[in-house]
Amino acid sequence: MPATKFVCLGLVLHVLIQGVASIDYGAALTKSILFYEGQRSGKLPSNQRLTWRGDSGVNDGSDVGIDLVGGYYDAGDNVKFGFPMAYTITMLAWSVSAFGKELGAKNELENALEAIKWGTDYIIKAHPQPNVLYAQVGDGDSDHRCWQRPEDMTTPRTTFKIDEEHPGADLAAETAAALAASAVAFRAYGPSDGNYTKQLLTHATQLFEFAKEHRGLYSDSIPEAKSFYGSSDEQDELLWAAIWLLRATHNATYYGSYIDAYEGTGWIRNIFSWDDKYVGVQLNILKLADANIIKDSSKFGDYKTALDEFVCNCIQKGNNNVKKTPGGLIWFKKWNNLQYTSSAAFVAMVYARHLTNHSIDIECADGTVKADELVAFAKSQVDYILGSNPKNMSYMVGFGSNYPTKIHHRGASIVSIKNDSTSVTCQGGYDSWYSKSENDPNVLEGAMVGGPDENDEYTNERSNYIQAEPATANNAPLVGLLAKIASLQS
Asked: Which Gene3D superfamilies match (predicted)?
């Protein structure tokens, strides 16, 4: 065979192995938002697209006389945890405010806004008084002892709250951030009627004041949440909330009296997640300085230095590089790693736009980094997630021809109530469905699972909750990433 044919064959094989030619980022974007319809709690709307789901949790809040119907189940269980839900909404709103034009170009802007509003409508109901926030519906321990689809659940729907006597500054502030970030998104891309935006900001400002005046970790006030979503700090959420309120209101008081008054910057972080928002704070400080909202930039340099080092470490050019799998995935933690990968890639993509707008570069320990290198890094991580990896496996359910088919998710793993209305009991679900070797009867389209281990290995088993469980926090930064990358593909 001529040498030129070997070269051509090698190129073709490279494309096929990497899967780049087959990745439809627009389709992945659509599915990434569709996933949220599978996580809905409450009375489902007439335009529900994942039709295998039914109404659930329709009496939530009745134990305390409050309407808490709605919101999202956090992952593969049937509990509504307020802390990750608020972070999810914040990140969805940031995806819209950062990449709203790209979402609109792919006809997904309205769907993204609906996903946000499903969460904010619930949050508004969960905040009936300035210093009261309902933080959780359902008990995690009892829920995890059962395997039931949401439509059948018989576990206690116990309601938990924070208030002046049982504070949770982290939760109150993250919820304020979610509402303020959503106000930014709706003001830019939502309906022309501004009443909803005003309502969001009213609740956001009250929650921020509640957080400032009543300090403490919410998971200390609500021990039932600690083993599931325990909080390690409150300062990052307070800064995060102040940043988003500043963006939403342009009221410099949030900067002068709180952000600038705080002596620290979070300094160099090793992760960006539902429990650690400092990287998001640092990036937004740069963006606010861009918009001339921040007049005093005395700490600007420290924020930028810390952010640059985080990004440099992610792209393998820093002083303390993030671990990377042999297949090229940045790997942070054993449990549900892809949530951290997607958030880091999102930061890189947003930061790339900042660098481009200002015609500047980043100086890393291992050399100068330009905006296009950050874009390439973010895209490489998305490509890996969507199938360009050693296992040629998409870690987004329903995307591609090879994806997780036995995920750790009650609703997906049990026959739809629309097909069989026979109630599934607490232990009956384990006996009849959890232990089955067959694929899930329902496809939770767009769900990004926890992903492979540090050696690019993944076990497609329902019991593999470390790798096989999706979560709302996983997808939120992915929505913005996919919108941007899909626009580059067009």
From this structure: 1.50.10.10
Other CB atoms within a 10 A radius of the CB of residue 398 amount to 18
Residue 244 class from Cβ within 10 Å (0-12 exposed, 13-18 middle, 19+ buried)?
buried
Kindly indicate the confidence band of residue 289, based on its pLDDT and cuts at 50, 70 and 90: confident
More confident position, 337 or 302: 337
**Tens digit of each residue's pLDDT (9 = 90 or more) over 41-77:** 999 999 999 999 999 999 999 999 999 999 999 999 9
DSSP secondary structure string, 9-21?
HHHHHHHHHHTGG
Among 105-109, 136-140, 286-290, 395-399, name the one with the lowest average pLDDT: 286-290
CA atoms within 13 A on the CB side of 402: 12
CATH code 1.50.10.10 region(s) in the chain: 40-231+415-443
Q: Which one from 127, 203, 214, 408 is the annotated catalytic residue? A: 408
- Told to judge if 408 belongs to the known catalytic residues of this protein, a careful annotator would answer yes
pLDDT at 297 (0 to 100): 65
Whole-number Å distance between alpha carbons of 401 and 387: 9
User: Predicted confidence band at 415 (pLDDT cuts at 50, 70, 90)?
Assistant: very high
CB-CB contact of 104 with 199 (8 Å):
no
Contact 386, 19 (CB under 8 A): yes
DSSP label at residue 439: P
Is domain 40-231+415-443 in CATH 1.50.10.10, yes or no?
Answer: yes
Give CA–CA dist 413/384, Å, rounded.
Answer: 25
**Which pLDDT score is estimated for 295?**
67
User: Which residues sit opposite 276 in a β-bridge?
Assistant: 273
Question: Does 322 have pLDDT greater than 80?
Answer: yes
Q: Which helix (H) or strand (E) holds 404?
A: none
Alpha-carbon Rg for the chain, nearest whole angstrom, is: 22
